[in-house]
């Protein structure tokens, strides 16, 4: 922001929080939790178990890519420089995320908790400022975004088979 002022640039600062959706990274270890869960559920047979790092009680919020694009467009067209959070305040546990994707897939998937990196116990986006400055809040539920994402990822998994 100081560089903006000193050089009269029109730059904006956004802090993105766990963006996910179709056509994103879904394998290889660099994917976000929603994509990893979608892939694992797609690859797990009905009634079988899939592995989840930690106890699954860590909480996160995830924002569907179309919502991210809308918020970013509003920021870029505004006079507000930021910084501003672009994320969702719909917080879920990783266990709940697995349950949601399993419901979308119409599968009963058991969870096998294993040791592994879990990050911080909880993280969420505070969206008060973006609502105040840009009148924006996510309009799509996590479940709806997961439905689109699971459909795409399951088609990618099928294509590999």
Can you give a write-up of this model?
- The structure is a single chain.
- With 161 residues, this protein is an alpha/beta fold.
- Helices cover 42% and strands 16% of the residues.
- It contains 6 helices and 8 strands.
- It has helices spanning 2-7, 33-43, 65-77, 94-105, 128-134, 142-160, and strands at residues 14-16, 19-20, 49-53, 59-61, 63-64, 84-86, 91-93, 110-114.
- The protein has a two-stranded parallel sheet with strand order 1-6. Strands 2-5 form a two-stranded parallel ribbon.
- The longest helix is centred in the last third of the chain and has 19 residues, at 142-160.
- The chain is elongated and about 60 Å long.
Largest sheet: 2 strands, parallel
Q: DSSP strand (E) fraction?
A: 15-25%
Shape: elongated
Ends apart, CA distance between termini: 49 Å
Could you spell the SSE succession in H and E letters?
HEEHEEEHEEHEHH
Number of strands: 8
Low-confidence stretches: none
Q: Please, what is the oligomeric state?
A: single chain
The helix fraction, in percent, is 40-55%
**How many helices?**
6
**Main structural class:** alpha/beta
Mean pLDDT comes to 93
The radius of gyration is 18 Å
Strand line-up across the major sheet? 1-6
């Amino acid at each position: 922001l100081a560089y903006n002022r000193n050089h009269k640039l029109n730059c904006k600062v956004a802090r993105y929080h766990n963006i996910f959706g179709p056509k994103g990274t879904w394998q290889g270890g660099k994917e976000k939790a929603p994509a990893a869960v979608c892939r694992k559920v797609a690859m797990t047979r009905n009634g079988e178990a899939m592995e989840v790092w930690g106890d699954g009680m860590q909480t996160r919020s995830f924002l569907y890519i179309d919502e991210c694009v809308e918020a970013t467009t509003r920021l870029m067209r505004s006079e507000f420089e930021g910084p501003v959070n672009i994320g969702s305040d719909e917080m879920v546990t990783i266990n709940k995320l697995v349950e949601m994707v399993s419901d979308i897939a119409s599968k009963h998937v058991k969870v096998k908790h294993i040791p592994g990196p879990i990050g911080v116990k909880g993280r969420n986006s505070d969206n008060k400022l973006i609502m105040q400055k840009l009148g924006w809040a996510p309009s799509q539920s996590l479940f709806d975004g997961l439905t689109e994402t699971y459909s795409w990822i399951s088609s990618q998994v099928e294509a590999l088979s």
